[in-house]
Amino acid sequence: MSKFLKDRGAFKETKKVKVVEQYSPIVDYANFELKEEDLKKMISCEKNILFHQQKSVEHLLSLSETLYEAQGILSNYKNGGFRNWFEEIGLKKDFVYMCLKRYNLYLNYENEKVMAIPEKMVKELSTPKIILPKEQILEILESEKPVRKYEEIKNILSGDPTIYKNEILEAEIIIDGDDDVRKLEKELAKKYSQVKELQKEIKDIEYRLGILKNKI
C-alpha cells in the first residue's frame, strides 16, 4: 500500500449508519385532542394499518394472478374442472370470480390499485355501461378517492344538465338571466346525448367486427 493511501486513511473501517424513514401521518390528529402518548400510539396504528393494507393488495394481486393461471390451465379440460378445483381448496365462487375480474382489469390497465377498489366498481368497470378511455380509468385509479372520481365522471357522461352547475361555477362562467341558464343546460344535454349515441355506435361496430373476425 502506498504511503499516500495510508496517510489519507483510505482503508479505515467506516461505521454503518441506519437511516430511519420519518412517517408523516395522513390523519389530522389535532382534531382529536389526544395526549402525547396516545397520539404516538394512534400514529403507530395508522402506519401499521396502511402497511398491512398495502400488503393485502399485493397478496390479492398474487392470488388473483394464480387463479387466472389455474383457470387457463383447467379450461382445456372438462367443464366444471376449475370450479371443482377451487371449491376443493375451500374458496367461494363469488370471491374467486371477483378476483378474476380484478385481474382482468389489472391486465387491461396495468395498475395494482384495481385490487383495492370496491366490488361494485370492479363490476361496473368489467361490464361498463359507459365506455371510458384507458387514460381516464387510470386517472380514476390514481386519484385519492377513486370511487368519488368515478361517480363524478359517470354523472358528467349521463347527460343530466343539472350535474354541471358546480363545473360551471368553478370555470367562472358568468351567465345573465334564467334564459341563458336553460339555454346552456339544453346545449349540455344535447352534447352528452350525442356522446351516448356515439358509445352505442362504437359497441355496435365492435360487435360486428368480432363476428367478422370469428368467420375468418
Describe the structure.
By secondary structure, the protein is mostly helical. It has 2 domains: about 25-130 and about 135-145, no CATH class; about 150-215. It has 9 helices and no strands. α2 crosses α4, α4 crosses α5 (about 120-125) and α6 (about 135-140) runs antiparallel to α7. It is flat, with a radius of gyration of 27 Å. The model is unreliable at about 1-10 and about 160-175 (pLDDT under 50).
Q: Which word captures the global form?
A: flat
What is the straight-line distance between the termini? 76 Å
If you compute it from the alpha carbons, what radius of gyration comes out, rounded to the nearest whole angstrom? 27 Å
Succession of helices and strands: HHHHHHHHH
Per DSSP, the total helix count is: 9
**Care to count the β-strands?**
0
Beta-strand content bin: under 5%
Counted up, domains total 2
**Helical percentage:** 55-70%
Decide which structural class fits the backbone: mainly alpha
Largest sheet: none
The mean pLDDT is 78
Explain the layout of strands and helices:
Layout: H1 3-8, H2 36-74, H3 81-88, H4 93-109, H5 119-126, H6 134-142, H7 146-157, H8 165-170, H9 178-215
Helix pairs in contact: 2-4, 4-5, 6-7
Q: Brief overview, please?
A:
This protein has 216 residues and is mainly alpha-helical. The protein has helices at residues 3-8, 36-74, 81-88, 93-109, 119-126, 134-142, 146-157, 165-170, 178-215.
